[in-house]
Structures are given as structure tokens and as C-alpha cells.
């Protein structure tokens, strides 16, 4: 009997579904049947449209079950829950993220790696224009230079979150398809496609979409191996930062002294001006260091992560490139500060002074009050970002109080 093109396609699909079905576990969990239907009806068609072959799908999805022990899951038969925030939890001020003992350990390890990989880092810097100390600091923050345990099967994690995650199922569905596209390339076998419980993979903690866009085969072995190749890992981090706008020749920022006459409410990347203008207003670097001459005509902005209760900085646009890796002022500051400490391993000059302990709920209540008074706090999320800090400062000034840009 002659089988038409449509018939061949139907037969291939039937064989694929049979492969998935016969490999199902003998002792099925409560969601396994619905999970198989999810794979067959949603994942397989979308993956095939993305160029993943029947053979790869049959091999990689056969016997797959949901990882129901992951945190942050809901029920697949219920809609996603709105984002949950524990407003009873204590807000953790920036000082809690900067431990000298942690930095000392990371600096020691980083210095060894800077020496070990000197020639490779020379080549990476030439290609991407990102300083080696920044590359190493991101690597340290993401996986402790590769020492962190990354034990999860990325496909299973992403499939589970796409199927029954409490939030962002569509996002994880897209990442699942991208993980299958990675397997389609044949570069990395499934057994090595390891991730965190959130689906971020390898030593630089790339999601599959970032892997496809930014991972680099720098050692020339034909694979973009961010799990076991230091060269590929470092180059991939540099490529990511370059593609997100890293400005070659500029640093991330500088610790400074902001005179009392300059309001902390002037903080923020939307208040940029040339470094030279800040200098004319009286802002100086700590330890009486001058700013590099090439920075003076270039833009920067005031950054005061704890308002007047902690160190102050002039940040360049590269600080916000670091935030593209992880959307957090504290993350970017950690990376930048660690990068600086590879040199002389000295901490911040200004201390992180004690601040009032408050819950995220108390922060949110304050944000709502500020919004009602006409301030832009960047969203009432219980976190104190730069818009909330400067709104606090403006409200303090309007009340005739000294502006601290923090909860007093």
C-alpha cells in the first residue's frame, strides 16, 4: 500500500506518541497522565514547529514525568496564582549581602583563576571588550567559579514548570522548547544538560534561550559547553554582557562621597549627567583618588543603595548591564565590588550603618502612602529600589526633615 505524505506524517506522529506512551513509568504519579497529554498535545507540536525532529522528541520525552518536588509549583488543573509575596518577611537591607569573609574566599579563588586562565582571558577581552575581573566576578556570583552543585535535569525542570508552575508557565514553556532545540543540535547530551531548580543551566546559569543566543564555543571543540569548559563559560559571560551593551573602556562605577548639600533624592539612572558635572558640585572619589580622565565627559548617576545609611557611588551604564544579568542593584553591586577586590581586596570605605528592621509589608504600606501623595515608587512590591528611596527623600524634604532616602 502506498502511503501519502500526509499519511507518513500521521504515522510518524503515531510512532512518536507510542514511544512516549510505552515508556511511561509503571507506578504513575497523580499528574502523570495529564502531563503526558500536555507533552503530546502542546510540547510535541510546538517543538516540531521549532525544528526539533521526531527522533529527538521520542528520545528526550519518552518516560518523562513531572518533578513534583520542585518549589513554586501549583496544580495543573488550576490557573496560575498571582505572584505571592511574603509581606510578613523581614526586608533584608543591602548590608546583609556583603560579607567580608565571603569576599575573601572569592577573591582568593578568583586570583588563582586569573593566573591559570591568563592567556584565555587575554583573548576573551580582545574579542568582547569586557574586563576579565568582571567576567570572573559574574562567574563567582553565579556558581562559585563552577563549584556550585547544579544537579537537576533541565528538560524535566522546565517541562514541570511549564505544566504546573504556580507562575510564568508560558515563559517556562518557551524555555522548554529552547532546551529541546539545544538537544537537536547534538552539542550537549541530555545527561549533561543540568540546571538549577529554576531551570538556569551550567556555570553561568543561562536559561536555554540565553544559551542559544550567547553561549560560545571558545575552546574550539565544537560544543558550547557551559557545564565543564572554563573557556566556554568565561567567553559566554563576556558575550552576554557585550550583547547587552557593555561599554568597553568604562568601569561599572566608583565609591564616592556625596556632600550633604547634594540630595540623595537625585539618585537614579534617569538623572544622569557627566562625571565632570558631579565633580564640580563637590562629589569626590573615596581615598582621595581622582576619577580616570576619560570618565569625566561621560555620563553617570548617583547610586545610594541604603540612602544616607551606606556607601554612595557614581555608576556608569555598565552597572545597568550587570543588572541585565540579574535585575537587582545588590547583585550588580556585589559583582562590581568583587571585581574591584581582585586587586587590593579592600572593602567599602563608608560603613553600612544600622537601619530599622521592617517587614516587606511595612515597606509596601509606605510605598502605597507615597503613591497616594503623588510619588513614583516603581511599584508597591515591598522592596526599596531607587524610585522608592528617592521618593522617601523627597517626602522627607517636603516635611522639612533631613533627607535620608531610607525608612527612619
TrEMBL record:
The keyword Signal applies. The keyword Repressor does not apply. Residues 360-404 form the Peptidoglycan binding-like domain. GO terms for biological process: peptidoglycan catabolic process. Keywords: Signal. Residues 39-340 form the Transglycosylase SLT domain. This is Lytic murein transglycosylase subfamily. The gene is mltB.
Amino acid at each position: 500500500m502506498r502511503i501519502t505524505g500526509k499519511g507518513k506524517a500521521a504515522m510518524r506522529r503515531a510512532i512518536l506518541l507510542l514511544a512516549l506512551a510505552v515508556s511511561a513509568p509503571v507506578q504513575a504519579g497523580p499528574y502523570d497522565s495529564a502531563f503526558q497529554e500536555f507533552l503530546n498535545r502542546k510540547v510535541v507540536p510546538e517543538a516540531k514547529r521549532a525544528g526539533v525532529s521526531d527522533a529527538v522528541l521520542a528520545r528526550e520525552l519518552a518516560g518523562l514525568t513531572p518533578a513534583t518536588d520542585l518549589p513554586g509549583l501549583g496544580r495543573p488543573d488550576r490557573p496560575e496564582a498571582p505572584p505571592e509575596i511574603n509581606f510578613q518577611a523581614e526586608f533584608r537591607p543591602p548590608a546583609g549581602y556583603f560579607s567580608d569573609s565571603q569576599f575573601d574566599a572569592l577573591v582568593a579563588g578568583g586570583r588563582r583563576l586569573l593566573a591559570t586562565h591568563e592567556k584565555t582571558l587575554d583573548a576573551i577581552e580582545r574579542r568582547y571588550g569586557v574586563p576579565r575581573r568582571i567576567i570572573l566576578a559574574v562567574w563567582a556570583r553565579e556558581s562559585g567559579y563552577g563549584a556550585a552543585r547544579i544537579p537537576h535535569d533541565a528538560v524535566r525542570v522546565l517541562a514541570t514548570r511549564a505544566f504546573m508552575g504556580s507562575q510564568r508557565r508560558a515563559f517556562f514553556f518557551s524555555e522548554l522548547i529552547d532546551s529541546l532545540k539545544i538537544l537537536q543540535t547534538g552539542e550537549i547530551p541530555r545527561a549533561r544538560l543540568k540546571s538549577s531548580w529554576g531551570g538556569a543551566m551550567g556555570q553561568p546559569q543561562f536559561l536555554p534561550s540565553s544559551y542559544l543566543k550567547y553561549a560560545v564555543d571558545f575552546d574550539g571543540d565544537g560544543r558550547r559547553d557551559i557545564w565543564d569548559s572554563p573557556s566556554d563559560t568565561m567567553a559566554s559571560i563576556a558575550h552576554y554582557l557585550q550583547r547587552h551593551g557593555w561599554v568597553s573602556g568604562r568601569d561599572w562605577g566608583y565609591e564616592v562621597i556625596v556632600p550633604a548639600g547634594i540630595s540623595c533624592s537625585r539618585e537614579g539612572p534617569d538623572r544622569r549627567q557627566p562625571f565632570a558635572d558631579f565633580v564640580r558640585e563637590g562629589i569626590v572619589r573615596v581615598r582621595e583618588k581622582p576619577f580616570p580622565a576619560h570618565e569625566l565627559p561621560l555620563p553617570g548617576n548617583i547610586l545610594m543603595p541604603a540612602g544616607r545609611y551606606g556607601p554612595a557611588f557614581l555608576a556608569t551604564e555598565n552597572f545597568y548591564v550587570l543588572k541585565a544579568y540579574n535585575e537587582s542593584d545588590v547583585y550588580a553591586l556585589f559583582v562590581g565590588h568583587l571585581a574591584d577586590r581582585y586587586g587590593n581586596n579592600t572593602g567599602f570605605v563608608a560603613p553600612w550603618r544600622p537601619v530599622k528592621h521592617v517587614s516587606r509589608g511595612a515597606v509596601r504600606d509606605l510605598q502605597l502612602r507615597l503613591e497616594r501623595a503623588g510619588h513614583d515608587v516603581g511599584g508597591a512590591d515591598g522592596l526599596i529600589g531607587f524610585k522608592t528611596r528617592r521618593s522617601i527623600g523627597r517626602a522627607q524634604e517636603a516635611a522639612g526633615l533631613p533627607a535620608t532616602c531610607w525608612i527612619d
